[in-house]
Structure formats: structure tokens, C-alpha cells
Amino acid sequence: MPSMLRDGSRRDVLAAGGLAALAALLAPRMALADEKAVEAEIKKLYGEKKLESGRIKLDVPQIAENGLVVPINVEIESTMTADDYVKAVHVFADGNPQPGIVSYRFTPECGKAAAATRMRLAQTQNIVCVAEMSDGKLYSTKSEVKVTIGGCGG
Amino acid sequence: MISRRQFLQATAAASVIASASGLGPLGRAAAQQRLSQADISRFDALGRLTILHITDVHAQLMPVYFREPSVNLGVGEANGKPPHLTDKEFRAHFNVAAGSADAYALTSDDFVSLAKNYGRMGGMDRIATLVKAVRAERGDDNVLLLDGGDTWQGSWTSLKTNGQDMVDVQTALKIDAMSSHWEFTLGHERVKEIAEKAPFAFLAQNVRSLEWQEPVFEARKIFERGGAKVSVIGQALPRTAVANPRWMFPDWEFGIREDDIQKQVDESRAAGADVVVLLSHNGFDVDRKLASRVKGIDVILTAHTHDAMPGVLKVGETILIASGSHGKFLSRLDLDIRDKRVAGYRYKLMPVFSDAIAADADMKTLVEKIRAPFAADLSRELARTDSLLYRRGNFNGTFDDLICDAMRSERDAEISLSPGFRWGGTLVPGDAITFEALANATAMTYPNCYRTEMTGEQLHAVLEDVADNIFHPDPYFQGGGDMVRVGGMGYSMDVSKPVNQRISGMTELKTGKPIEAARKYVVAGWASVNQNTEGPPIWDVVEKYLARVKTVRLEPNTSVIVTGA
Amino acid sequence: MAANPTPRVRVPAKATKGEMIEVKTLISHEMESGQRKDSAGKTIPRKIINKFTAAFNGKTVFEADWFAAISANPYQAFFFKAQESGEFTFTWKDDDGSEYTAKAKLAVA
To answer: What is the per-residue pLDDT across B453-485, written as a single tens digit (0 to 9) for each?
Structure first.
């Protein structure tokens, strides 16, 4: 169990200066999702439908400041009118114990297809985002988030 | 790139000296005769607006020696480009004569003899003199004085006064605004308290409260100077919560937030700004990339990476300035503003030669008052050094070798780790190692020297993680600082490789045996970002060691083999 | 962890017609991922909030399915185009079947 997925309670901190985050860096020994698991999730939702690029702005930090709380903002370009809007957005990670992060369902009432939440990341990995438009078109993008031990800055 | 013409202005004063100086020792008096305050501050004024910039002072109230790096590799697009030039290449690029005052201030070779010629640099009383001279020349209403941050940390007095010494100095200097990084290691409550009370603006567009994702500090401020509206946007070190203990400011989040900078720029223009300045603590390479992506910034005042360049670098229409560290330099940038845009600029990196510049009496008094309660500690002599002790360099610094030796010896460890900090003064052979000099290299709020066990695999993971933080080809993934210093162990690094493939050949120096992945090693280190780290403060560890060795003599460090640069 | 998850929401009280407002919500909850083991080595069972719903005047306008990777004390922000006065109802659904709700009024002028 990588410590990064635990809540940051006191007991997780090695008091003698142990590098707590090291456990996370050495975590890949345990069973984690991979690119294929993310692809499988997308296939479950949309079969073999084509994923286009563009329209999605996926805003995640290049380097996670805290693997337990990594902000993720998505925004999809759309007029958000009754006949042209973003129906759903799915976010996956390819290096966590399970690939799912969050799925959103938007409506034209939102006015803007944008949402923000916070996620836990076990290690450096890709965040994959798929958007489904009201006309059935699919878009996707991905972005890497680095999870680091930290320290040693000058 | 820097044109020759800009560069000549940049070093107009110093080149007078450079042309006459030969190699090797000039004799101190001769050097001093050549260096005058008038030479240093001489400037062919342009337009009405002057921006002055100091940064990364690291709480150095007094003049210090500070040797620039001999190894400062750039990766990716920064490879071989300024500021990633050292010594001969630096001098060739910037047209600096070997042995000149500029060479002493900006490069590392021949440092010991040049230090004897040209003396210490910096000192807040000297900086005050230069600032006052510029204000007198240009008029108070036409000068903006900006501080890039890393101001409140790095000395015994700043540690003992929770940064109040430097806040008092900034107040006396009448700085207009500041940016930040090490400031945060005073803890969130203290930073908030100072930011709210200070007569200058504490600007940080990229700090958010974790809970509601809302701005914590003022992002920008518009100043009316030189008949222009100057919008100054502040940017704290984006990696503060990774590089320093997050538990000291648990509710704050940083990051580059490029889109938000663009928003700040656009809002500044909409509010009538004639000039937009980013008072940045991103580090030079991050700012170079940012300048190519965010539109409409006229000037980026860079910081964090401690680079000093005697000329500007232009990315598109954006001017980048690098003003060095430790009070060694004061940057002056004159801007000619016409029709709400920068029609012309002139720049000079003013070297603060402490022997050439008169001390400002008021600031001298203030500095003396700040230091008086700590006088006994500051002047306490711990040992002497026969070796040059310095910090900067991507892989090693001799001051760090000393700290690593002290940790292994005093904490009975096989391997020691010392962070790749870029702050801390230099001592030349023959100098006394005072407690002040030691504090200048160690004073911080999480100084505990831990002793723990780590496997070879864990040590490898640490080195890889830090290496990626410095040598990731995309500067947005870098964190600044230099490679963690390692005592008792050697290794090879191919800087061109990706993460987890750079480090090889880890060897225990004492036995010459390879480090075993599964074996546990006793490791001592300091400045852990983890809360509740146990152990004595690092300065106590080093002081004890110095009391035993009495004289520091270091062998050349050949324990890191670098390829791929 | 608090036994009773407490929601908090930030919604502007007033907006002009057609204005885009940002709705921010938080709820205290440990979001036990089902991945952790206790000191005896036994897996701690999953207990997360798996769904967040926002309705305005009774009509669902935004939904989020949260998975085990969502951070403790989950935060959710989204946008809403103000057209008429009314009331938001926010609902959080827990793995254990519990539901937590919060309401916020919006006056549109």
C-alpha cells in the first residue's frame, strides 16, 4: 500500500527524518493500473468509437505538491446550448490502484463545461480525459503529473 | 540574445577597469583605485522610468565573498545558453576580460586571487547608497524598487528575528514590492502577518488556499512612476510546497499557473497599465519558457536560480533580467515609455563592490542595531580553513563537502546527504570559520540533522528524484536548486537520460564496493521536508566537528562522474 | 474523522440574468479508498461518497461520479448560468446508503 494514498495523518510520517514519500516512489511493485486498464475503461463506455483531439483543456499541475490532494480542472470548449453541449467527461489515471477518478455529466444549464475537484495520485502518471459531446463525438487528451519526494530546493 | 550594444551599456563602468587589468593579483590598492562608486553607478539615463531590482539576498546584511559556479549545466533548450555558461565561455559570451572586476563578480576561476584584489561584495548599507543615488538622480517618483524574494532567510539574525531584520531593512530601503520563496519557511502565520503589516506589497498571484482554491495574497499592484502606470505581478516559487516543508503552510498551494498570469497581464492592460512587469521567483529557465507562452509581459525580473547576467535576454518582446544573489548586484533598468508601450530600454547590472561603495550611514546604523544582540555568536571563531569553501555548482560545493564530512563523523554514518542549496557565502583560504559564516550556509527553520537507515535502492531513488528535479528537459518540471550533495558515496550521472536512468555506479567510497540495492546503510542528512524530523541542528553538528579538526583542508572532490552534458 | 459528514457550499447570493457563476462545494469525509490496510494487515473496507448531484429548482444540472481516488474532504466546483431566481439542492451519496444534502438560494435580477 503506497503511503501517498493514505490520509496525511501524523502516524504516516517517519519521525526520524525518514523519507515518507519514498514508499510511493518505490510503489510500482504493487498492482497498479496501466495504460491498458484506462483504454479498457474507455472501451467499456464507448466501444471502438474514434477519439479526436482538441476542445479539452485539462489543467493539472506538472508536479504534484501533495500526492494526496492534486487539483484537477477540466474545461471543454462548447456553446453549451440545448442542441450543442458537453454531455459527459470522464477522467482516468494510468498509475493508480484503479483507473477511475471522476465522471461528470453536464447540462446546457451549466453554461460552461468546466469542473474542478481534487484527487490522490500514487506515483508519477498520466491523467486521461475523455469528453462526450451531445452529437456523440468524442474528444480526449492526457497530461502527465509528476509525484516527487521533494526537498533539496535552493 | 544579447546584442553587443546592450552589453556594452551593461558593463560600461566595469569595462573601463577590465581593459586595464591584467591576469593575476593586481594588489588591493590598485584595484580599489580603479573601482569607484561613480564608475559603478554611472548610467546613461533613458526615458523617465527606472526599475531597480535586487533578489535572493538571503538575509545577507553584510558584504560577503560569493563564488559563482564553475558547473551550471543547462538541459533541453537551455543547453549552452546564458545563463548556463561559466568561466571562459561566460567571459567570451559577455565580453568580460579575465582577471577583471567583472570576471571576479561573475565567474569562478582564479577566484581566490581575485577575491584578494576586489574584496567582498554586497552589504545592505552599500546597496542603500546605490539606491539613494539613483533616486536622487531620477527623482523618487520615477524609481520603482523591486525585491525578487528569498530575502528573509539565510542568516543567523534572520532566523533569530523571524525575518524581522530583513523586513526592517526592506522598509528602510523603501522597496515597493516583493516576491517570495524561502519566506514561506517562516510558516504561514508569520508570512501573513508580515504581508499584512509591511509598507511594501507582498505579491503572489500563484498562491491559493487549498480549501476553496482562492487567492491568498494580492496578485498585482499598479504603481505610478516616471509618468507611467507600471503593473507589477508577483510570482512566488511555484515549487515551494515540494522544495520546502509543506506542513509549514499546509493550506497553501502554489504552481506556475500560466493562464492566471495571462489573466493578470490582460487585466493590467485593461486597467490602463503602460508597462507590465513580472516580479518572478520562477527561476531563469522557467521564465524563459513562460516568456514565450504568456503574451504582453514587458519585463521579467528573474530570481531563484541565482544567475547574474551583465546584459538582458529577450524572448520575443519580453526583457529578462537576472540580478544575481546575496546582495552582490543591483540591477537598473531604464524604460522609455511612449504611447503605452516600451519604446526603448537600457540596462546595467551594478556590481556592489563593498570596498568601492561608501556605506549609507542610516542603513549602517540599522544593520549594527540588528546585529548587536547577536554579536558574540556571530563573531565566534570555530576553526580556520586552508581550503576555498563555496556552495555553488550543480554537483558539489566545498562547503557542502565540509558539512557532509561533519555529518558522517559526528552522526557516525556511512553516507551523508546535504541538500543542493544555492545560498551561503564563500570563505577563502586563511579565513576564520566564524559561527556567522556557518549560519550563512545553514540557518533555516528545519535544520535537524537526522540519522536513519536507507537501502541502496532508496538512496538510488532519492538521487534519481533530485536529478530529475534539476535535469528534466522541460523547465516546467524542474524545481531549481542543485544536486543533493553526497558524502561517503560516489556515483555517475548521465544528465541526458530520462528519470530513473540517470544514476549508475553508486559506490561506497571507503571500501570501493558497489552500493547494494537491498543492504541498509546508515545515512545522516539535514533539511528534511518531513515534519517531526529528529536530530540536532546542523550548525551544532558542524560546530562540534570543527572544534575537533580545527583547520579545514579538503581534498578535491571527484566522487561524481558526469556525462551527457 | 467526523462521524457526520458536513457539507459546505459557496454560491453567490445574487447574480444578473445570464451571468456565469461558479459553485464551490466541500464535504468532510475520509473517502476511505478500500486500498489501505490496518495495523493488523487487514484491508480497510471502502467507504466513499460515490455521487454528487446539483439540482436547481428541482432539475438536475450537474452530476459527478466520484471514484476511490478522489481526495478526502472532497471538493467539487462547477459553473451555472443564472437565468432565474431559485434554489440549489446539493446531494452527496455515501457507499453506505446515507445521503447528505445542502441548499443555497440564488436571487437573479
So the answer is: 999 999 999 999 999 999 999 999 988 789 999
Task: Give the model's confidence band at A17: pLDDT under 50 very low, under 70 low, under 90 confident, else very high.
Answer: very low
Residue B341 CA to residue B229 CA, distance in Å, equals: 11
Number of domains in chain A: 1
Chains B, C: CB contacts within 8 A come to 8
pLDDT value of residue C39? 86
- Inter-chain CB proximity B461 and A71 less than 8 Å: no
Q: How far apart are CA B377 and CA B437, in angstroms?
A: 11
Collapsed DSSP state (helix, strand, coil) of residue B121: strand
B135: left (phi over 0), alpha (psi -120 to 50) or beta: alpha
Residue whose grid cell is 577575491: B115
Q: What is the dihedral of CA B472, B474, B477, B478, to 10 degrees?
A: 60
The pLDDT tens digits of the residues spanning A62-95 come to 999 999 999 999 999 999 999 999 999 999 999 9
Contact criterion met (CB < 8 Å) for A151 and B423:
no
- pLDDT tens digit sequence for B426-443: 999 999 999 999 999 999
Q: Convert C50-59 to b/e letters by CB count within 10 Å (16 or more is b).
A: bbbbbbbeee
Round to the nearest angstrom and report the end-to-end CA distance of chain A.
32
| Interface residues from chain B to C (CB-CB < 8 Å) | 211-213
CATH of C7-35+46-97, one of 1.10.3720.10, 2.60.40.10, 2.60.120.260, 1.20.1250.20: 2.60.40.10
Q: Which amino acid is at B557?
A: N
Q: Provide CB contacts within 8 A for C15, sequence distance 6+.
A: C21, C82, C106, C107, C108, C109
Contact between B119 and B28 under an 8 Å Cβ cutoff? The reply is: yes
CA B526 vs. chain centroid, Å, equals 20
For testing the chain C interface, which of A3, A12, A120, A125 should be mutated: the one with the most C CBs within 10 Å? A120
Section A16-28 average pLDDT: 44
CATH at residue A131:
2.60.40.2470
Q: How far is B208 from chain C (nearest CA, A)?
A: 14
Residues in C closer than 8 angstroms to A80, CB to CB, are 81
Contact at CB, A5 and C36, closer than 8 angstroms: yes
Contact predicate B36/B1, CB 8 Å? no
List the single residue in A26, A63, A116 with the smallest CB-CB distance to B213.
A116
Distance of CA B42 to the CA centre of its chain: 25
Contact B480, B239 (CB under 8 A): yes
**pLDDT for A149:** 76
Q: Which residues of A touch C70 (CB under 8 A)?
A: 101-102, 117-120
Q: Looking at chain C, which subunits does it touch, using at least 3 CB pairs closer than 8 Å as the criterion?
A: A, B
Residue A117 lies in a domain: yes
Contact B213 C75 (CB under 8 A): yes
Residue A27 — pLDDT band, cuts 50, 70, 90? Answer: very low
What is the amino acid identity at position B533? Answer: T
**Are B489 and B498 spatial neighbours (Cβ–Cβ below 8 Å)?**
no
Residues within 8 A of B (CB atoms), C 10-49 only: 10, 24, 26
Range of the structural domain that residue A131 is part of: 31-149
Cβ contact C79–A69 (<8 Å): no
- Please state the rounded mean pLDDT for residues B489-501: 95
Contact assignment for B534 to A16 by CB distance below 8 Å = yes
Q: How many CB pairs under 8 A join A and B?
A: 120
Q: Report CB contact under 8 Å: C64, A103.
A: yes
Do C26 and B211 lie within an 8 Å CB cutoff?
Answer: yes
**Contact in structure between A55 and A140 (CB atoms under 8 Å):** no
- The domains of chain C are located at 7-35+46-97
pLDDT digits (tens, 9 = 90+) for B56-87: 999 999 999 999 999 999 999 899 999 999 99
Does some domain include residue A64? yes
